[in-house]
Amino acid sequence: MTKVSGIDARGAQHCETTTLGVLLRHQGLDLSEPMLFGLGSGLSFVYWDGKNMPFPFLGGRVKPFELTRNLAGALGLDLRVEETTSPRRAWKNVTAAIDSDHPVGLQLDSYYLDYFGTPVHFGGHMVALYGYDEHSAQLVDTEQQGGAVSTGLAGLARARAARGPMTARNRSFTLTVPERLPGPEQRIVPAITACADAFLDPPIANLGHRGIEKAGKLVRTWLRRSEDPRRDLPQAALMMERAGTGGALFRNLYRDFLGECTHLLDSGPLRTGHRLYGEAAALWTEVAALITEAGTEGDEERLLRAGAVLGDLSRVEREAMRALSRLGRDDPGTTGP
């Protein structure tokens, strides 16, 4: 088995931040998962319901790999990305990095990984690869999937080459940390304001605060939208709370990121955003519980309540992001530690 030396194989809640944490800790940069998520401007919202989809999807973060690109920009990291349609070349890209003692991030379809107890197709899944032999690869995945795990090379190749929504062509990537990192204000303020601006001015009504408001109207129809409400509604709620989101559709992670930032920067808008995202996180957990109960009991009244809470959430998150968008602009008291 060829392995990267000194690997810290800790899993975390979300797959992309788990992967980023492994790659950065190997170079001596140990940031919390909320900090990785926030510096990557990871928070978002999308209500997605296509003609070929069996049931709507509520997403709470930016597109796969966008977080990684954002984080690299925020910290001045050297991000090296390899993509190819050749399976042979794809594997050579990985082994070259491992042989040089660098862990590698992979984007793939989780369905083909041996260790997934309940395989589902998700082409935006991320893992860190740190070892291999002729039969298997050593990976770090989320805590939910076991942290340090192994999978067969044949399944790994299929996962990396899979085509479909959110997939990439055998994407692999490495990160290099610069000798000098930007100071707290230089990295935190742009990451927060970029996230806030995108959330406040989405290009379509399915995204950002407009998407949450739209979800509040459409969730009321979900019992009629579903062929099997007892299956579909609890599954949708489970995706919000436990499917690598850190709970509350990523709002727990963003709340905790803002909380960490309040210890680094003295800012009224930042404290306001932190307080409001604490409220938002609790409301998202309430929405998930109401959707679960509506499905298991066939109770439309609970969906009406969930829709009302989503309406409140649209206003709360809009207010939070408006405050955060002012960070460093009309907040002259913002200073470093």
UniProtKB/TrEMBL annotation:
<dbReference type="InterPro" id="IPR032369">
    <property type="entry name" value="DUF4872"/>
</dbReference>
<dbReference type="InterPro" id="IPR026935">
    <property type="entry name" value="BtrH_N"/>
</dbReference>
<dbReference type="Pfam" id="PF16169">
    <property type="entry name" value="DUF4872"/>
</dbReference>
<dbReference type="Pfam" id="PF14399">
    <property type="entry name" value="BtrH_N"/>
</dbReference>
<feature type="domain" description="Butirosin biosynthesis protein H N-terminal">
    <location>
        <begin position="14"/>
        <end position="142"/>
    </location>
</feature>
<protein>
    <submittedName>
        <fullName>Lantibiotic ABC transporter</fullName>
    </submittedName>
</protein>
<feature type="domain" description="DUF4872">
    <location>
        <begin position="155"/>
        <end position="324"/>
    </location>
</feature>
